[in-house]
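Folding Task

Wanted — backbone structure
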Amino acid sequence: MEKIKMGLFDGMDLGGDTVVAPEERVAGSSNFINKTGAYDVVIQKAYMDVSSGGAICFNLVLEDKDGKQMNVTEYISNGKKEVYYTDKKDGTKKFMPSYTRMKNIDFLLTGKPQQNPKTESKKVKVYDYDAKGDVIKDKEVMVEWVGKPLTILCMKKKNWKQAKDASGVYVNTTETQFRTEIDFYLDAVTRKTHNEISGNKDADIYKNWMEKYGSDDTYVYDRTGVKASTATAPVQMTMEDVFA
């Protein structure tokens, strides 16, 4: 990660007449929360970062009452600071789901609809791959998020590991991995999503999800299916390759 400059939201390309994607489902990798279920968590850390290629992300460290944590990294832009993509089906511009999710989380925590979170420069202890340990760095911290509660619906999933092949295309490898991912962020009191609160709807997502998955913490969703063979041997890649 390169050194953060203040004002990551400044100069962000919103794509003009952009349509907000309604997606609320999320994906975040788990370090310690590793079973399917609903978790009441508190945000321990919340800060912005940027890749060496210029892509912006937000990072969360969530902790439940038992001290189990989950780290979440969501990239909200590409290297050009564009937070939108062009839908190939109809040619319209839509916000990246991660960008919409960030604003939805801000609404759940602050009640302020559809805005970028307020950030301030703070010193944060983060893991540094070069130093191979935690270091103190200046980050843009979402000051209104830290210490706030959320409810998250998590599901353990089995996936194929992916790598980049010789032609630069992502392909499945022969290895599998298990990841506990967040399906939804919910208000900690009402158990509603952003869309349910905004639309004055019942907490149906929480109710239906819990009825289907909540009673079995051993549930694993298998996403591997039938693996297609790869024509060329994959080349190991890093997250920086995606946004370089």
